[in-house]
Amino acid sequence: MSNVCIVFCTTDTRDNAEAIADALIDSRTAACVQIVPGITSVYRWQDKIVKDTEFQLVIKTTQQHAKAAQKVVEKLHNYDTPQWVVVDTHYASQAYSSWVNHELNVE
């Protein structure tokens, strides 16, 4: 199994998404953050069904860095309850895994 994991997080503005992405890369708690604009999220909040257009952050990190990355996000995020879902990878290519680990100073 690879030590690379993918984290999903959403936010409501591009500015917040970019601030989070920049901080994650700068702190070396993520090797890459992709910002996907224009997703629609449907959920219940305070007993109401809400539909929001959001920006999804797809964060590439390692299992060892996921909690530190979460702390970075929580400091900058503008939601009361930010989405933070960590998905372990079953496989990542050796070249990609090496790059992620190099960027996070794991090697």
**Unreliable stretches, pLDDT < 50, 5 or more residues?**
none
Taking the alpha carbons of the first and last residues, their distance comes to 16 Å
Shape: elongated
Chain-averaged pLDDT = 95
Topology, number of strands: 4
**CATH architecture name:** 2-Layer Sandwich
Find the structural class using helix and strand composition.
alpha+beta
Structural summary, described in words:
The structure is a single chain. The two termini are 16 Å apart. A hairpin with a 2-residue loop joins β2 (32-45) and β3. The chain is of the alpha+beta class and 107 residues long. 32% of the residues lie in helices and 38% in strands. The chain has one domain (4-94): Alpha-Beta Plaits.
Short structural description:
The protein is an alpha+beta fold and 107 residues long. The chain is built from three helices and four strands. The chain is elongated and about 45 Å long.
Annotate the secondary structure layout.
Layout: E1 4-11, H1 14-26, E2 32-45, E3 48-62, H2 66-76, E4 85-88, H3 94-103
Antiparallel strand pairs: 1-3, 1-4, 2-3
Helix pairs in contact: 1-2
Q: Which structural traits does this protein have?
A:
single chain; 107 residues; alpha+beta; Alpha-Beta Plaits; four-stranded antiparallel sheet; 3 helices; elongated
